[in-house]
């Protein structure tokens, strides 16, 4: 039986990846953000899973804007790193886990989540930046095979927070019904509050982010009850990316143990958050 051993929530701001790729992590603008990652990275280095699932959104780099699946899942052997206009990031391509992917597609469709299936997919900063937050120096390969789970957060109507939480709960059941003994890490990506355009460009809401950071651990149902309009009002038009944290949270147990969290403003235009949770029983 496979099991979810940890969950990692993290922002995916592209300039976090660029700062790493260009050796700027010790610059005064960036140092505090990367220092805030250190305890999570150290713990994760000691808890390498057999497979990871990254819940993320594409930003019209891997998928044309004419086709917006509400939810999608990758089944490929390998995912290329997308070129977002400045050349590909100097990080490894991603090896997938088709066997677990097919099991997840089957289980989730059976539960009523009619996913779009990606047999081919280039992954953008929404995916590669969280991998870099986890593993700053991957060398030739990321620590384990990784499966992309896509959520539309960029085009109205995005799925509701409640639907994302329910998808996460179904994902957790799907993982636990996989016959092989695998440990699985789940990443929920995006957020925290930010708005990139319009009259509220630059909007950040630390009070809301602080509430979200606490409730994602102890009261996710409260977050799942929020409407998309309320989320955008409180977190900004791109802050709605936070619904992807609820997919990660839904896949975990009701009671989880926080390993580390940190909050940094601003990373580019965004309030950057990280939260790492251990899903094993406290005695383990
Ligand atoms: C920024 C944040 C994002 O979530 C994103 O996808 C692109 C850019 C930013 O703050 O610059
Ligand atoms: Fe984004």
Automatic annotation (TrEMBL):
Domain Extradiol ring-cleavage dioxygenase class III enzyme subunit B as annotated: residue spans: 9-270
Coiled-coil portions: none
InterPro entries: Xdiol_dOase_suB (IPR004183)
Keywords: Dioxygenase, Oxidoreductase
Record NCBIfam families: PRK13364.1, PRK13365.1, PRK13366.1
Protein biosynthesis recorded as keyword: no
Protein name: Protocatechuate 4,5-dioxygenase beta subunit
One MF annotation (Gene Ontology) recorded for this entry: ferrous iron binding
